[in-house]
Amino acid sequence: MTTTNSSSQFSNTAVYVPLQDHSSVSDREWARSLKKMKALYQADQQTKFLNLHAETASLLHQLQALKQQRQEVSK
Length: 75
Fold this sequence. Notes:
Layout: H1 27-40, H2 43-73
């Protein structure tokens, strides 16, 4: 595998950014992290990272929903 530092390498790369609450990270910090990630990693690695991020956010949302349900049941 070869790596290049060409910034045009990602010009046609679609990036999925989930429209979920990044409560622990501000939008500006998230955009900065995304920009750094795009500059450092190949498109396949970006895809894996973003899929893992979306899955993590989904699992966190499910966990918060379960926690809320348990609190409501215990009242």
